[in-house]
Amino acid sequence: MNPIPLPKGLTGLESSPRSQELVRNMFMTSGDTPVLSIRPGVDQVTSGFGRSRGAGLFANQETGDEELYMVSGTRLIRVTIINNRAEKILQPEDIQVDDLGEIPGNGRCILVGGFTSLCIMEVGGKGYVYNPDADNGGPPLQEIIDPDYRPSVSVAYDNGRFVFVPEDGSPFFWSNLENPAVIDLEDFADAESFPDPNRCVFTVRRSIFVGGSRSFQRIDYDATRQTYVGRKGSESKVGYVGGLVKYAETFAFIGNDSDGDFGIYVMGEQPQLISNDAINELINKEYSFFDLRNIDANSVHWKNQRLTIFNLPRHTLVFYGTGWALWQSGVSGYLNKTWRISTIQTAYNYQWTGDEKSSAIGVLRDSGNEYGNVIEYAIKTFIRSTPESNFFVRRIAASVTAGRALGENIPQIMMAHSKDAKLPSQQRWRNLGRTGDYNNQVRWTGGISKAPESLTIWIIGYGNVPMNVDGLAFE
Q1: 329, 369 in Cβ contact below 8 A?
Q2: DSSP E strands, 193-327
Q3: Digit-coded pLDDT (tens) for 281-314
């Protein structure tokens, strides 16, 4: 049989549908023999007080262990594992949720931990400090009331200083060492090369990057002068829009170039564009600056692959190094436009999740299901012949690795084909077997189609199991 290359991700332009490829609810693994693997599932393990607004880590001052903190609804909570014999699959009784106080509002929050204080900042709103050992006679959680604090949209921790970027784009400011509640009047600075408004800040190797609406610059703290000074030659003409997220030892973000076009970048010495033509077309056609400026973005290491997740209002875009996927919750006929997980934070060797629609707190698991519902995956690719020539496809095969199915959810897989790149109504479903069959090859035979130049192939499947598509072929 002739191999059909697995699609690398979402590729191709809307004007050329026969050249478009799609990966939905999957990602390409890394290594010598990459395969398309179903995305992580989610197990609910406990509940908070409302939808997730943000998460972060802060060290317990007595034990030194980093602990998980979340803003759930209007409450700051701490989530800990209290059963020291808990198995890998957590149970609700293994977990304790402590209510630490109120964070009013409903906006997205950024949580940044220092050595002795946790800063909680509602984007564009108030700031708070949690310090269980504060010697000020007040409660551990307090609002920042310093008159020099301004409502901010970004905050980072740099060698003891909490650095804030004001909502109005004015010069950034920073706190006293290890105390985000105290800001001195003179502790304000600005990127020196461009006059554009400031929009974000991120710490990279003991220096900060400050992003403006039309530029980025790397800035170092000068201890002699007790202020921040721009690093010469670090300026770039890519501006910041939204979706700031950690990426390895640096960060990724949605930006705009000097022509005003949106793209997704990873910061190196200069911003490096990682979005392809398909992603660029999607975000420039579907979204405005106001849609993108306050989106959630998350990063997680899964199956030895780095996944960077951008939750746009109507799409969840996932970058996995070699390509892009779309992730969605739900199944056919009931697919949500986006993945409902808005927060991911690694803690205690688990990847914890917060939900944008409910108070559910979960952990990622290689299960093939989300809150007990099966995950439906899909890939779209094509077989292409030479121009102006017909070819006949007699058989299509998919090599699939599936885990052990439990209960009534027997894994299913479907193949459909079309000459116009649209998903046809005729869909040919197959069972993968209740017990799973590693390296199982599913075949669809019977004279598939006679096609001019190209034939679009759809593979769609689901099952309450981990699953990979290892390869495709035709005859």
Answers
A1: no
A2: 198-204, 207-212, 216-222, 227-230, 239-247, 250-256, 262-267, 271-273, 296-302, 305-311, 316-319, 324-326
A3: 999 999 999 999 999 999 999 999 999 999 999 9
Give the separation between CA 223 and CA 361, rounded to whole angstroms. 42
Q: Are 416 and 426 in contact (CB under 8 A)?
A: yes
d(CA 150, CA 179): 16
The 10s digit of each residue's pLDDT in 326-348 is 999 987 667 788 999 999 999 99
Nearest CA-CA partner of 401 in 36, 21, 29: 36
pTM above 0.85, yes or no: yes
The H or E element that residue 291 is part of is helix 289-292
Helix (H) or strand (E) holding 295: none
> How far apart are the C-alpha atoms of 326 and 21, rounded to whole Å?
11
The percent of residues above 90 in pLDDT, for the chain, comes to 72
Please state, for a pLDDT cut of 70, what percent of the chain lies above it: 94
- Which is nearest to 415 in space by CA: 388, 379, 446, 439? 379
Burial of 153 (0-12, 13-18, 19+ CB in 10 A): buried
Q: Pick the residue with more confidence: 441 or 46? A: 46
CA distances to 79, 122, 142, 359, 418 from 103, rounded to whole Å, are: 16, 8, 10, 15, 53
DSSP, res 269: S
Of 116, 121, 145, nearest to 132 (Cα)? 116
Question: Which H helix or E strand runs over 312?
Answer: none
Q: For the chain, what is the mean pLDDT? A: 91
3-state secondary structure of 317: strand
Distance CA 52, CA 298 (A): 13
**Closest alpha carbon to 194 in 133, 235, 251, 225:** 235
Return d(Cα 324, Cα 22) in angstroms, integer: 9
Q: Please answer whether residues 95 and 46 qualify as being in contact, where contact means their C-beta atoms are separated by less than 8 angstroms.
A: yes
Check pLDDT > 90 for residue 133: no
pLDDT at 156 over 70: yes
- Cα separation, 376 vs 399, whole angstroms: 17
Answer yes or no: are the C-beta atoms of 128 and 121 closer than 8 Å.
Answer: yes
Please enumerate in sequence order all residues whose Cβ is within 8 A of that of 222, keeping only pairs 6 or more positions apart, or say none. 228, 229
| Count of C-beta atoms within a 10 Å radius of residue 7 | 25
Helix (H) or strand (E) holding 464: none
Residues 6+ apart with CB under 8 A from 88: none
Q: In the prediction, which pLDDT does 436 show? A: 46
